Amino acid sequence: MVETPQLLLQREIRATIGAVFEAWTQAEVLAAWWGPDGVTCVGAEVDLRVGGAYRIGNLVPSGETVWISGEYLEIDPPHRLVFSWRMEGSAEQSQVTVGLSERANGTTRVVVVHEHIASPEVAAEHERGWNGCLDGLVRHFQ
Questions:
Q1: Is the peptide bond before 5 cis (omega within 30 degrees of 0)?
Q2: pLDDT tens across the length of the chain (142 residues)
Q3: Which residues are within 8 A (CB) of 109 and not within 5 positions of it... i.e. 6 or more apart?
Q4: pTM over 0.85
Q5: Is 106 exposed, middle or buried (CB count within 10 Å of its CB: 0-12, 13-18, 19+)?
């Protein structure tokens, strides 16, 4: 079995676990914070059920819109989301797990694990993207 790259990213969010879960699962809220610097979310669709699909449009600096889509594999409100991840137009598919936990100080810890990534180069691109998205989530709740 071939090992594939995996990412692990974390942030503390100044919001309740319920509000952070909604930020990941309600299309209009997701669109408000999604995207690293220089990328604008032009649309988000969420069918929040196991087997349901999501789709997120990213307007990148070149003017191209890149769509990310996938299927919800596991939903455990408000603690966990697992979904497939695919850039439309690419055959490569990976998996993302978002874990949320309440902290004693009233914040929510967000842990994103992105696994089954095709290559170290693709993992580096995803790492930049996830860091930017998570920074946007932090700003959304400030």
A1: no
A2: 567 889 999 999 999 999 999 999 999 999 999 998 899 999 999 999 999 999 999 999 999 999 999 999 999 999 999 999 999 988 899 999 999 999 989 899 999 999 999 999 999 999 999 999 999 999 999 9
A3: 10, 11, 12, 13, 99, 100, 101, 102, 103
A4: yes
A5: exposed
